[in-house]
């Protein structure tokens, strides 16, 4: 049973941010300090990725374990009240995430998902260094990525490559 009144619960859930969350800021600070330059929440790409690295043709999604249904994670627990609503909502989020990543992949973008639980203090350094390694590996694997992206002033063009 919920310890809060419906009004308190509504206020609590409505105050949760979707941008500039603590996990997202951790990833952004690490990437910037290690020389990776990026754009935020690109409105021209499907799913408005949290972080977009044009040079690496990579989108990074920093997902909250509860909101995006991180199965097997201790932070993904379905609430005991209004269970049907939450199950449907989280399943819609999971399906939307898969579809957006499919669209990005067909457009030639790499997608990386970083989970909130992987940024807890005991796992953070390993996760972030793995992220940097992956980005460098993507870039080294295909050096033409740096030159195949058209130079556009402003934001990223979201059209698929010919």
TrEMBL record:
Q: Which UniProt keywords apply?
A: DNA damage, DNA repair, Endonuclease, Hydrolase, Nuclease
Mention any Pfam family matching this sequence. Answer: Vsr
> Which enzyme type, at the first EC level?
hydrolase
Q: Which InterPro entries match?
A: DNA_mismatch_endonuc_vsr (IPR004603), Restrct_endonuc-II-like (IPR011335)
Which EC number(s) does UniProt give? 3.1.-.-
Q: Which GO terms describe its molecular function?
A: endonuclease activity
- What is the annotated signal peptide range for this record? none
Describe the task this protein carries out.
Answer: May nick specific sequences that contain T:G mispairs resulting from m5C-deamination.
The family annotation for this protein states: Belongs to the vsr family.
Mind telling me what this protein is named? Answer: Very short patch repair endonuclease
Q: Which organism is it from?
A: Segatella bryantii (Prevotella bryantii)
